[in-house]
Amino acid sequence: MEIQHHTVEQVEGWSVGRLDQFEGFTSPLVVTPTAGPDLREYFEAHRPLIKEELHRSGAILFRDWRVNTAADFYEVMSAFSDQTLDYTQRTSPRSQVINKVYTSTDYPPDQEIQPHNESSYAFTWPLVIAFFCLTEPATGGETPITDNREMVKHLSQSTIELLEKKGVSYTRNMLDWLGLSWQEVYQTDDKHKVEALLKKDGIHFQWVDESHLRINWHRPAFQMHPVLQTKGWFNHAYFYHRLNQDPRLLDLVEETDLPFIIRLGDQSEITEAVYNELKQAYKAATITFPWKKGDVLILDNMLFSHARKPFTGQRKILVSMAEPVRFEQLV
Questions:
Q1: Domain range spanning residue 30?
Q2: Less CB within 10 Å around the terminal CB: N or C of the chain?
Q3: Within-domain flag for 142
Q4: For 98-145, what is each residue's pLDDT tens digit?
Q5: Is 56 helix (H, G, I), strand (E, B) or coil?
């Protein structure tokens, strides 16, 4: 197969439609096969075109292709990118399935995961994140996605200016009995290696005790997209806000020891009013659809955030990340 087309709609062997229409904005593309169902083959032949469309629309759902196993999914992602990533500097429990393919966050099924862009707080993050439905849930378990460009349209100018001016301050506490330990986060038992990494990235750190590492750093609320060269919303200000955290945590630890603490860059609080504004803005721009076994959903991680609904049954969604972006590239 050779690339002979200018848009994804012109590629022979597949059909391009859209998810159900959502009020006020355009929903992502849905690509289904009309000839051979080997998605890896199409990715190899049309990689530049697919990437171009992904960075334009932000999300593409590939449905009814022959992707049945974790190995199939890894082959598809390897055809899409030469830079698939390991899951490092971890913030949530995930299990590696095969090389560079992981389970999505291993939280209990009754818990909802709020919208976020993968690793937006980090020094390195994936430009691309992909999800594969290995097992459909019995009920629920959707992965809602939000176009950040649409979400920002629902924010007041004062909130945008506040976050643009002050940025976001992140504090993380790693304790061996609550959340992920520092050994799990950095995938090493060597404190010197951890300290070297933190110093390299300019992160302030404190060993509260042998099992408790506290780190603090600052990030812009809006980041430059390395391909589009446009600035967009890219942070965890909403996700890690105290109002999204389990209130039972405060029965276990002091507020200063919560796993994540979010403030504005000048250490002032992100108020409840701003939190509620962000909550409503995400809600207004979110797209939710049911998973179908074999689905492959690819997101531009700097354009679209993702979440998770509670579910019943044996839901198994796998994830793979690609195309590393380093913060220092953009400043």
A1: 8-107+126-135+290-330
A2: C
A3: no
A4: 888 998 777 889 999 999 999 999 899 999 999 999 999 999 999 999
A5: helix
Same domain for 304 and 259? no
CATH number, domain at 180? 3.60.130.10
Q: How many CA atoms lie within 13 A of 201 on its CB side?
A: 20
203, 85: one domain: no
Residue 4 has pLDDT above 50, yes or no: no
Q: Give the whole-angstrom CA distance, residue 133 versus residue 317.
A: 5
Can you read off the two tokens belonging to residue 199?
């110093």
Contact between 112 and 310 (Cβ < 8 Å): yes
Q: What is the pLDDT of residues 23-62, one digit of tens each?
A: 666 788 999 999 889 999 999 999 999 999 999 999 999 9
Angle separating helix axes 70-80 and 39-57, nearest 10 degrees: 60
Q: Pairing between strand 231-233 and 260-264? A: unpaired
Q: How far apart are CA 94 and CA 31, in angstroms?
A: 28
Domain C-terminal end among 281, 298, 317:
281
Whether residue 294 sits in one domain with residue 232? no
Residue 1 domain flag? no
Q: What's the CA gap between 144 and 113, in Å, rounded?
A: 10
Domain boundary among the residues 259, 281, 303 is at 281
Transcribe 247-289 into DSSP letters. Answer: GGGGGTS-GGGSSEEEEETTS----HHHHHHHHHHHHHTEE--
- Dump pLDDT digits (tens) for 217-254: 999 999 999 999 999 999 999 999 999 988 888 788 88
Residues 306 and 277 in one domain: no
Please indicate, yes or no, if residue 121 is contained in any of the structural domains.
Answer: no
Whether residue 263 sits in one domain with residue 325 = no
Task: Say yes or no: 158 and 272 in one domain.
Answer: yes
Taking residues 73-94, report their average pLDDT: 80
Give the span between the Cα atoms of 297 and 46, in whole angstroms: 17
Q: Which residues pair with 170 in a beta bridge?
A: 217, 262
* Structural domain contains residue 270: yes
| pTM score of the predicted model | 0.92
